[in-house]
Amino acid sequence: MSSEKDHHVELHRGLKNRHIQMIALGGAIGTGLFYGSATTIQLVGPAIIVSYLLGGTAIFFIVRALGEMCVDQPVAGAFSYFAYKYLGDFPGFFSGWNYWFNYIAVSMAELTVVGVYINFWYPNVPQWVTALAFLVIITLINLINVEAFGEFEFWFALIKVVAILAMIAFGLVMIFFGLGEQGAVGFSNLWTHGGFLPNGVWGLLLSLVIVMFSFGGVELIGITAAEADDPKRSIPKAINQVVWRILIFYIGALTILMILYPWDQIGTSGSPFVEIFSAIGIPAAAHILNFVVLTAALSVYNSGIYSNGRMLHGLALQGNAPKFLTKVSRNGIPINGVFASSAVTLIAVILNFLVPGKVFLYLISIATIAGIFNWAMILVTQLRFRKVEAEKGREDQLQFKMPLYPISNYIALAFLAMVVVLMAYIPDMVYSLYIGPIWIIILYIGYKFLRRNPETKPPHRE
Length: 462
Hints:
Layout lengths: L3 H4 L9 H11 L3 H4 L2 H8 L3 H25 L6 H9 L1 H33 L5 H16 L3 H31 L23 H15 L5 H4 L7 H10 L1 H19 L11 H8 L3 H36 L16 H20 L5 H32 L15 H17 L8 H21 L10
Helix pairs in contact: 2-9, 2-12, 4-10, 5-10, 5-12, 5-13, 5-17, 5-18, 6-7, 6-17, 7-8, 7-15, 7-16, 7-17, 7-19, 8-15, 8-16, 9-13, 9-15, 10-17, 10-18, 14-15, 15-16, 17-18, 17-19
Pfam families: AA_permease
Protein name: Amino acid permease/ SLC12A domain-containing protein
InterPro entries: AA-permease/SLC12A_dom
């Protein structure tokens, strides 16, 4: 018989297969694509297509490494749990708190650009007011139950998917046939404005930094494993779809944009998707796309509140966070984790009040370095996971093996190391290289402090 105490520490397995698929899809389509791609285009030009292909390959290896572990052991805390179990106390502590920190920065970035999108319709509304309003709304949604989160995320993601597919189809019509009085656009914009690679290989390399921010969120698949009603079926399906998601939704959409409009005329004051359709005289499409990019930002923020609450809950169960964060409401929501994460995200509202319009790049630089820490930890943990399982004689029992193991791990790790080096050459991102080591030191101090607290004790390795 379960006690009241037990009842309040259990998450509910309320996410259906369709929820998992759309959460995985929605996590990879957000502000990085709809807003951050404008900055990437300025760095690399039409070759942004190649940038996303390279970054997408690395991301595929990372989520497959995570998927191998999550399918075998679908637990709360995901890669934080695995890092603790296979690498040790501090790696588990670091992995969980760093993921939380990463998604806090991502959530702040999403709130920041929500104000930009609202200003497309209502230019006089202060961005901080918009950020505060949506912070409250999305937090309340996440406090209902996990099914409510899943339903909202399903529809948020579906809007993005349908809109991008429609935009691609619409763009193809304009490219090959034209629309109204405007003739067929053709393909010349890919090479007539300084060439396909106008800033050379160096521009291509620098663009990879912002491209990697765009992919932040795909690891959310692992967080959902503890609340999936059939993780051994839904998680592999969602992860395998990463390949065609990248091909269609990133490379496909950006290829259409690069063909439709000269890359060097795209600004950075709004979504390039909205700018382009406004510039070519299709205002209705611009309004529709602005609604889409708004829902995209809210979708990723919705996912951020969800994942941050679960990560704090998982950390608390491990003894790596204060015990009050283990509290789960009767509806299966880690209520204190959600409130704590939402409260910290309020910093974005304050930043938008103090320095409106200057926050986004600073936030994505922090999110990118934290994301790289997460991804590197996943790859290293999976190397150890596979070795341990092989020693136990269980390697053949793994249902969702990492492809090209271990070569793929080392390729992806080398790629991430290269991105960190490249961050030093982008003025708005270089300071995150100082924040990274400081953040590691802060976490180590926090780890040592928490371990001295008699109320927290390390989780048990199996």
